[in-house]
């Protein structure tokens, strides 16, 4: 698999043709490490094979440089195979002569050699080659000329000047950049060359051919580009990467391009490490400095770290470039000049591997000091400190803390945690200074590792001198708005609150801390009916206008409001009024994710007043800072809640998925909240496949959150119901409902489990139980008073009750829901009423309106039911893209998402997205209806 070397092969073939005519030549093949010199020499014998050409071959090696005439002996041994008896005797005689010369040189010891002493043996060798050439042209191949032993070099230099009269071509391969390549004898041979063949890197087309050769199929354009850019056309690097990918079972698809970029083949690293170890100290030192500094070091900085002056650094950098280990990279600021970079990521690994542990430690420590003294960023200095075990610099802790603060601001808490944990290794920290560092570390950990956060807060509290400081430290514990707070963390909060005393007896900043502690403690009891009742009493005691001037007052009010919403102990109008006050006083883009204030959005959804929070969110998105990962996730989660309140589960589900992807690795609390949103949006969408996937994913999430636990029960019941297991489904629903009732959670908007259970009882033929649940739901809804809850309950009763009474209930449901923000519930009520009327102009109008609303809510399953139920509305046209049509066709053949992804060379997530769009455009709810809609799709396409 030798690509793009035909011109070089042709030149050697021409040289052999000239040698046959009595015109010998010396061909020098040059190039950096891994460019393919050895591969070219290996291919030459087969390329020029004919009956009259004899090939002599020798391969030099660094470890054999002390073996005198080793390369010459390899060449003579090549002649022994198939040689006549007389020639074999001469070869044996010449080889013995070289052995005697080597022995004499060893006995003489080090010192200047006498070239005249070698003249008889060298002349005999040339005479021997002249006799061999009499039968046909001779091709002599010497690989790695830079490693040839000195006596053999002298022999080759002698021969290079005396090729006249020989029908021979001498081909020598010389690696660029090697110090021994400047040996006088090597230069003498190179100067005698009649042809020079410098090998260049492979083109993108050759890279594509190499990909096909190694992986057995053509590579995607993105994959080939990644291979070409990463390996810079170096055949050794490219083949090593492709062999690694092939061993791992990767195919050359677009989604594997990143795997090609990040590959670090072990064999390539070892080969490069051997090359680095053989270099002079200055070259090794500069390579080590570049490896330690990474992308942040310019040549001058690397030279200072390596201890080289500008001239020495320039020479070492040129040597690295000639070896093919380093290439120039233009920085973003082109006026600053090019900066060196390693030609392949494995080069840096190889340089690191060539260093001892002590050398790496010393270099990173010196690099940290150099970067600090030259004014580089805190994170660049911290990266060097992190690479070492200890550091005695007095400024190291301050740099690490500043780097952690920067990492937190850019949404990288994992990096901040690493910096702060490294800072804790400094033995000089004690007392309050150590406590402050522990608190900073706990604040970074609270979203990722609540247990570690709690542990570090408990270590910091005894080191703080005042009660206010200890209470403020306790507030750094992760605010478990949804999940259950561990008992140990609750104990810390209670101790801090008890030490401060009642908030009403305090003033200033200490009162703020006490109020926030009260909010945290009350939220810890959210699953306790007695604690909820106490929280509602506390809210009522504050009067009609609870204080909301400060952040702590707003946080406490939000917790108390949540208790009133869960227990339905405050009218929706009052809930809306207080929630709006909280939003009006909350600064845009505040750190609400670190408090209980997100509960305000839940309260407005429960009160069927999402317009208030929707307008607030739009302002927040325009003016707030949304550059942090956690803040982004929080924004998507709020949007999901608002969209659910408006009856748009599909886009809400998409926002919840984005929130989960962003938050799961950064903030555990938001990860739980995002999963809850996914569960309840999936319940509204009624997609069994989606429900099963969510259940499988959620089973790996450890959480004691009551909302998540019960929501998963409800989702499991929905999956059972869709698979015909109605009895099991209703039992699961009732068990989940009883858990909510036991906790005192009675809000019919947030937890509409009775309508689902009533529907299942109706399917099972148990009308009495269904009607009892429906009546209970109506009473709860009317007690709460939110239009969406009342309308849903009336629709449920109207569906179960026959005759005029049922029709009246459905008409009332439609009337109530016209005042609700949830258009999907209105569409359901319109559908039920239209079907009950069984034809006529009014029924058609209701069904058309239901279909229009369902389409606006992106609920194709409901729109399809409205179309099937009658009405003159035209079905939506299947305006699928070309890719969507291909995906739909493959799905129609019964292929799974994974199989379709393999067929098209994309990811499974991309296939899922295309199918979701197709379901929406075709107004179908899943694969079964999609297959049924395929004839209609073909008709639309044909038309």
UniProtKB/TrEMBL annotation:
Key word Metal-binding present: no
Cell membrane found in the keyword field: no
CDD domains assigned to the protein according to its UniProt record, in alphabetical order: LuxR_C_like (cd06170)
Pfam hit, one: GerE
HTH luxR-type domain residues: 873-938
Keywords: ATP-binding, Nucleotide-binding
Stated name of the protein: LuxR C-terminal-related transcriptional regulator
């Amino acid at each position: 698999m030798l690509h793009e070397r035909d011109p070089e092969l042709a030149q050697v073939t021409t040289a052999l043709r000239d040698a046959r005519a009595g015109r010998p030549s010396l061909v020098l093949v040059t190039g950096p490490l891994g460019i393919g010199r050895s591969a070219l020499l290996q291919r030459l014998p087969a390329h020029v094979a004919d009956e009259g050409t004899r090939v002599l071959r020798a391969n030099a090696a660094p470890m054999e440089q002390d073996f005198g005439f080793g390369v010459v002996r390899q060449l003579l041994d090549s002649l022994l195979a198939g040689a006549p008896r007389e020639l074999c005797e001469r070869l044996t005689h010449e080889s013995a002569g070289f052995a005697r010369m080597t022995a004499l040189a060893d006995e003489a010891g080090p010192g200047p050699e006498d070239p005249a002493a070698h003249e008889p043996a060298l002349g005999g060798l040339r005479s021997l080659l002249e006799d061999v050439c009499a039968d046909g042209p001779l091709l002599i191949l010497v690989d790695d000329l830079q490693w040839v032993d000195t006596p053999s070099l002298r022999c080759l230099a002698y021969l290079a000047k005396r090729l006249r009269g020989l029908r021979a071509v001498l081909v020598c391969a010389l690696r660029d950049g090697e110090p021994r390549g400047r040996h006088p004898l090597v230069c003498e041979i190179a100067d005698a060359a009649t042809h020079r063949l410098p090998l260049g890197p492979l083109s993108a087309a050759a890279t594509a051919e190499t990909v096909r050769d190694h992986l057995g199929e053509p590579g995607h354009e993105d994959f080939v580009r990644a291979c070409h850019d990463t390996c810079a056309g170096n055949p050794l690097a490219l083949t090593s990467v492709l062999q690694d990918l092939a061993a791992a079972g990767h195919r050359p698809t677009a989604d594997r391009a990143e795997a090609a970029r990040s590959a670090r083949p072990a064999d390539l690293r070892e080969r490069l490490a051997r090359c680095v170890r053989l270099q002079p100290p200055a070259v090794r030192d500069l390579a080590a400095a570049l490896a330690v500094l990474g992308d942040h070091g310019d040549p001058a900085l690397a030279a200072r770290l390596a201890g080289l002056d500008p001239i020495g650094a320039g020479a070492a950098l040129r040597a690295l470039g000639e070896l093919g280990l380093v290439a120039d990279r233009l920085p973003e600021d082109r006026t600053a000049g090019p900066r060196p970079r390693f030609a392949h990521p494995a080069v840096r690994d190889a340089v690191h591997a060539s260093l001892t542990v002590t050398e790496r430690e010393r270099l990173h420590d010196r690099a940290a000091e150099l970067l600090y003294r030259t004014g580089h960023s805190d994170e660049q200095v911290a990266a060097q400190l992190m690479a070492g075990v200890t550091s005695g610099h007095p400024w190291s802790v301050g740099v690490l803390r500043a780097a952690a603060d920067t990492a937190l601001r850019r949404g990288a808490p994992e990096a901040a945690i690493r910096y702060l944990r490294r800072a804790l290794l400094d033995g000089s920290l004690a007392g309050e200074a150590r406590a402050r560092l522990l608190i900073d570390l706990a604040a970074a950990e609270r979203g990722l590792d609540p247990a570690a956060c709690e542990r570090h807060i408990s270590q910091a509290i005894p080191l703080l001198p005042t009660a206010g400081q200890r209470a403020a430290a306790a507030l750094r514990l992760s605010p478990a708005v949804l999940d259950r707070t561990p008992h140990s963390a609750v104990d810390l909060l209670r101790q801090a609150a008890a030490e401060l005393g009642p908030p009403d007896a305090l003033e200033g900043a200490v009162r703020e801390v006490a109020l926030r502690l009260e909010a945290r403690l009350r939220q810890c009891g959210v699953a306790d009916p007695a604690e909820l009742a106490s929280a509602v009493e506390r809210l009522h005691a504050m009067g009609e206008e609870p204080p909301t001037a400060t952040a702590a007052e707003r946080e406490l009010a939000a917790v108390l409001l949540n208790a009133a919403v869960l227990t339905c102990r405050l009218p929706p109008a009052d809930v809306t009024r207080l929630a709006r006050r909280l939003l009006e006083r909350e600064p845009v883009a505040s750190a609400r994710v670190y408090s209980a204030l997100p509960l305000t959005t839940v309260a407005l959804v429960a009160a069927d007043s999402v317009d208030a929070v929707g307008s607030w969110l739009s302002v927040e998105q325009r003016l707030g800072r949304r550059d942090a990962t956690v803040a982004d996730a929080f924004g998507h989660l709020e949007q999901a809640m608002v969209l659910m309140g408006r009856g748009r589960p599909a886009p809400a589900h998409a926002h919840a998925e984005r929130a989960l992807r962003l938050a799961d690795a950064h903030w555990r609390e938001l990860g739980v909240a995002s999963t809850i949103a996914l569960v309840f949006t999936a319940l509204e969408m009624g997609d069994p496949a989606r429900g099963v996937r969510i259940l499988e994913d959620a089973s790996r999430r450890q959480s004691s959150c009551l909302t998540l636990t019960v929501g998963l029960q409800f989702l499991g019941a929905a999956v059972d119901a869709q698979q015909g297991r109605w009895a099991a489904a209703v039992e699961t629903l009732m068990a989940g409902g009883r858990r909510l009732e036991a906790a005192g959670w009675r809000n019919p908007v947030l937890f509409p489990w009775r309508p689902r259970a009533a529907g299942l009882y109706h399917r099972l033929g148990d009308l009495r139980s269904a009607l009892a649940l429906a009546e209970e739901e109506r009473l709860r809804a009317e007690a709460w008073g939110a239009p969406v809850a009342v309308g849903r309950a009336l629709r449920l009763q109207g569906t179960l009750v026959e005759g005029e009474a049922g029709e009246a209930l459905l008409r009332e449901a439609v009337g109530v829901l016209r005042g609700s923000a949830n258009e999907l519930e209105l569409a359901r009520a319109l559908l039920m009423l239209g079907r009950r009327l069984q034809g006529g102009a009014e029924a058609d109008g209701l069904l058309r309106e239901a279909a229009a609303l369902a389409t606006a809510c992106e609920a194709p399953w409901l729109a399809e039911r409205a179309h099937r139920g009658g009405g003159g509305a035209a079905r939506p046209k299947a305006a699928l893209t070309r890719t969507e049509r291909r995906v739909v066709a493959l799905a129609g053949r019964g292929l799974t998402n994974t199989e379709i992804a393999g067929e098209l060379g994309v990811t499974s997530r991309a296939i899922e997205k295309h199918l979701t769009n197709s379901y929406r455009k075709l107004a179908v709810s899943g694969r079964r209806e999609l297959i049924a809609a395929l004839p209609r799709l073909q008709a639309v396409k044909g038309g």
